[in-house]
Each structure stands twice: as structure tokens, then as C-alpha cells.
Amino acid sequence: MRFMFVGDSMTIGRAGDYTWRYRMWQHLGATLGGPFEIVGPRTGLYDDAAAPAHHAYADPDFPQESRRHLAGWGEGWQHMAPLIGPAAGAAGADVLLVSLGLIDLGFYTRADQTADNVRRFVAAARAARPAVRMVLLPVIPNVRARQDAPFAAEVDRFNELLAKAVADLTTGASPILLAARPASYDIDRDTYDGTHPNASGEHRLAGEFAAVLHQAWGIGGPYRGRHAGL
After folding, report:
1. CB count, 10 Å around CB of 177?
2. Mind listing the domains of the chain with CATH numbers?
């Protein structure tokens, strides 16, 4: 089974981070009970002080082949929609774990336009991999949503449209699941700057993907990362 992480700055991570991708890799290794691969065209972290792509993960033993992803700092649904088909097709991705939307709403597109790009993304992924499965994470409001009521309303509106898109687009051949927003996610506790996850936030994000994979598709097991030293 081949998993591909797709996301923005919360997913690619900054130099020195573990990333929720790392936490998810550990979880799959501990619970899947069979071989799996992490796939994607990129492996780097972001480091604005050095170079756009950096490889200084907090755990230097994180295997190179498991660092793969399709994530980028400042990239959203509109950027990934044209990239996902070639990336998923070349890598033979079976499951896409997607966390996108905050950067779109913050800088590029309104909620309805962002939802249109979700649909473009799904169509392109399926054109390349007709049986691909997808898990989409709602946008988690950040510090800007706390201070900017119109922006917070756009986030809420997009999450409604995302849920509708999942309901409309899921099929038996290529199912789509909507992960839950972590109920206890707290930007003061689970991020290092009001947006990007710290270690606690990484576990909470990985835990939501793990929960829906296990509950809906029987992939892996319950998430025990933060309690098992992962």
C-alpha cells in the first residue's frame, strides 16, 4: 500500500521539525501489519534561512525513502490540483492524505473558489489513479481566524463546502473520507506560532488521519503515538 502526504506548510514542515508525516509513518509502521510505502516527488523541509528545500529533520534516522511527500510552503489546493495527477500516477499512490486550504483562503481564493479547486484535484487524482482513496482534513483555524472575523467565516464556509464535496464525490471505486478536526486542538498549545504544529500538534493531526483510516477502512490501528513514545 502506497501513501502520499499532500499539504502546505503544516505538512512539509520547517527544518528541525519532526512533522506529522513522521508521526504518521511511525504509526503505520507500528500498526499496519504489512508492507507499505510513503511516496511522492519531494523529500525536503522548508528553511527560509537557508534554502527552499532542506533535509534537517529532527530525527536524522527518519529514512530517506519515507520522507517523500507532495507538500510545499505557501502551496494550496490551486497549486496541487495540476500536480497531483502526474505525482500520484508516477508514484502509484493508493491513498492520499491531504491537509490543504488554509493558505488558499489566506492568500489566494475565497471559499467557493477553493472548493472548486478541491473538485479539480479529485478529478485529476482519479484520472491518474482511478481507484485512489483519499482522506481530506478540514481547515484548522489559526491565529488569524481569532483576530479576523471575515477570514474565520471563510474558513467555516469552506469546511462546509469541503464536507459537501466529499459527500458528492465519493464513489465505491474511489472513496473519499473527511477526517475530523481534532476536537481538542488548541493553537496556543499545539502550534509554535499560532499556525504550524509543534510536537503536540503533529500527534493530533496524525491521530485524526489514523483514526479515520482505521475506523472506515480497517487500515492500521488506533493511534497511540503520543502515549507510546512515537
Report:
1. 17
2. 2-227 (3.40.50.1110)
